[in-house]
Each structure stands twice: as structure tokens, then as C-alpha cells.
Amino acid sequence: RFPGTKLETSAASNGPPASHTNGPGEGNCTACHVTFPLNSGSGQLIISGVPKNYTPGQQIPVTVTLNHEGAVRYGFQMTAVDKNGDRTGGYILPAASPQPLQVISGIVDGHDRRYIEHTIDGITPTQFNTKSWNFTFTAPARRAGKLSFYAAGNGADSDGTADGDYIYTTSAATLSGSAISNYDNDTRSDIAVYRPTTGTWYALTSTGDFRVFGWGLPGDIIVPGDYDGDGKTDDAVWRPSNSTWYFHTSSDSFSSFPFGLAGDVPVPADYDGDLKTDVAVWRPSNATWYMIRSSDQAFVAIPFGLNGDRPVPADYDGDAKAELAVFRPSNATWYMITSTDNTFHVTNFGLVGDEAVQGDYDGDGRWDFAVYRPSNSTWYVLTAAQSFIVTPFGLNGDKPAPADFDGDGITDITVFRNGTWYYLGTDGNTFNVVNFGLPGDIPVPRGYIPQ
């Protein structure tokens, strides 16, 4: 759809008006180009370059391509929105003269949005039957959870009318961090267990593949993570008897690394924001954190907490770096130092006897304080936006194992019970049951919460 009178046609010179990407609350260009149903042609609209996961401020080269045989002119419009449907990130236009692209604004159901689209100088193909537009998308300065991209394209016959044109739509998405327990590098956590009696890992991937690998000994502590930064979970254990880390990466490489002392608590996390899990321990005897940053191999030691605390490192402020944080069972209080500004935070949340189950339960890209109360089998969440969520789920004796099994960027409430998984969809209505594992197994997602 394009402004004007009878010249509201093909890929119009001024570009389409805002809000026609087929995104949430929007229509698409078939509002005017009515000859053919949406996506009924033989062509295809593609958004490429969008990674599975983004980092704050990342500049991402994006290409929108419309393939349609026989079209004379091509046009498109794309927008990027966060989980609330509001605009997110920004666009950098290519260095070109004349400029083939422009950015315009729009409002949809009260949501402010920005759109990148063609200009009069961006409608003519340079080769038959296809047209591509290249630009850079800049991710938001802080994690914002799942970012969704929606686009519409017009393969036009350029006959001066709105008739005879084919309209296509498509979408893409990127998350603000790799899903935990993710063995196949998609956007979803996989059902997986570690069998401590045999030191064997078992995984059922979201694509239905079954994976078995022996890696560990009785007495080892599982420390799963993405230590090589390829987006896939690596099998890893920390052996208290010799304070050594043992890694089996997703690329089938093996390594070991002595780090820590007997009595330490392993606390692996991404402390430097490079999308790689860092080797780290918390020493209760002196309440000190010790880590090796994967970005520069620097050794870091930071005193924080008290003996008896439970370390709960996670990215609570959305800067892609895990905060030093502890949950104090004696007074049910969370203590945290934010990585961005070294600010000290104290939050009373929970009761004595609760288990910490931190995660991103609202999908805003920031991890939330959360506890599971075994006495009444209820989950309590205090989001980073200070919303309070209460969800009864599970039975006394269950093992909490929260993860993102549906790939929407929101942590799913999950328990493991004697070889069976139970988890809620993030809509609060979908209940899932998966038989996988044996009594005594350790659910791999539980390995991300220091015990």
C-alpha cells in the first residue's frame, strides 16, 4: 500500500505508509493490493542475518530479500519490536547516494514503532526476479528479551495501479541469551539429565534426537554451560576430590582445568559478557568469588557474601554480564552487586526454607529473583520490573528445573519427579509431561543453579 491517488501502486516512490508489516496489530499491503491473496505467489520474502542471540548494542548486518519471478519493481517494509510490541533497537542506513532506504515512525494500538523501508531509489532490481536491501540493526543497549522482526514485501508489475502485485510477509526473531541446557543450538532448552551413579549425560533435544555421553564420576558436581561460545551446552563437571574442571564440548573436544579448593561451590556463569561461560567458584570459608574470565584469561577475586549464603549469579540488570549475587537462607534476603555500576542491592524476598530458582520469568532479558517453596509447592517471582508472580506447581520432594523449553525467551516453571518432567507453558495454561530419566537423576537445568 502506498500514498497517493491512482499512483498508489507497485513499489511506490515514497515508500509505504507505516504499520503494514503484518506485525502485531498491523495489517499488510493486501489492504490495497487485493488481486492475489497474501503469500499466494511463487516467490518468497526472507529476513537474513538475524542471529539466534544478540548482545546489548550489537550491530547486526541484516538483509531483506524478495524473490518473485517476473516482478518489475520491488518494495518492502520491516519493523523490530520487543515482547510488549514496542519499537526496539535502531537502524543504520547504508552509505549510498542516492539512498535506497528510509526510516519512518508509526503508532499501533498505542505502541511506538519504527519502520525501515525502500525509497524511490530502492525499488529497481539489479538482477532478474529478485531484490535485496542491506542495512544494520543496532540491538538495544540492554537486554530486552526476545526481539521480533516483521516484514512485508511487494513484487510489483509496475503498471501504474495496485492490481497484479504479489504481497509476501515473513518474520524472524533473536533472543537475549542462549537457552540453558541447549544441545542443538536452537532457541529452546532440551530435556536432559545427568546420572550420578554412572557419570552419564542423557539428552532429548527439541528436534527429537536422543543423545548419550559418559562424562563424569560418582561424586562429581555438574557444571553445564557454553564454555566455547558456540551456542550449545557443553558437558562439564567439577570434581571436589581434586578441585578440577572437566569439559566435553559440543565439538567433541576434551579438556581439564584445575581451579578451586575442596569445599568450594562451583558458580560458572558469563561474567564478562562474551557469550562464553566462565570458570568460577565461591569459597564459603572466606565468602570470596574466584573466576577466570574467558575474554582475556584474567584471574579475578572478589569478596562478597557470608558463609552459609547460596550463590545465585545471573544477569539481573540486562547488560549480558552475570552479577555477583547471593541468597541468604537465614533471613531470605538477596544481596547483589550490579556489574554495570558496582551498585550494592539488598532485597528481602522469600522465606526461610525456600529454594532459589532465579530465571527470566517475564521475558524482558533480565533475570528475576525467584524461590520455590517446598512446604506448599509454590513458585514466587519478583521480576526486575517489581511485579509479583505466584504460581502453585509441583509437589513436595520435586526438584525444580526451570528452563525455556518453548523458545520464547521466558523461563518455564518446571519440576523433575522420579524420572518425569512437568512444566508449564508461559501462557500459564499449557501443561506438559515428559517421561525422561530415572529416579536419582539430576536434571541438567538444575545444574545452572549452584547447589
Description:
There is one protein chain. The chain is an all-beta fold and 451 residues long. The protein has two domains: 44-176, Immunoglobulin-like (Sandwich); 191-253 and 308-447, Lipocalin. Helices cover 0% and strands 38% of the residues. It contains no helices and 33 strands. The chain has strands spanning 44-48, 59-67, 73-81, 90-92, 101-108, 111-118, 130-138, 147-156, 166-174, 191-195, 200-204, 210-214, 221-222, 235-239, 244-248, 254-258, 265-266, 279-283, 288-292, 299-303, 310-311, 324-328, 333-337, 344-348, 355-356, 369-373, 378-382, 388-392, 399-400, 414-417, 420-424, 431-435, 442-443. A five-stranded antiparallel sheet has the order 5-6-3-8-9, with no helix packed on it. Strands 1-2-7-4 form a four-stranded antiparallel sheet, with no helix packed on it. A hairpin with a 4-residue loop joins strand 14 and strand 15 (244-248).
Quick description:
With 451 residues, the chain is mainly β. The strands form 8 sheets. A 5-stranded antiparallel beta sheet has the order 5-6-3-8-9, with no helix packed on it.
What would the keywords be for this entry?
disordered N terminus; 451 residues; five-stranded antiparallel β-sheet; mainly beta; Lipocalin
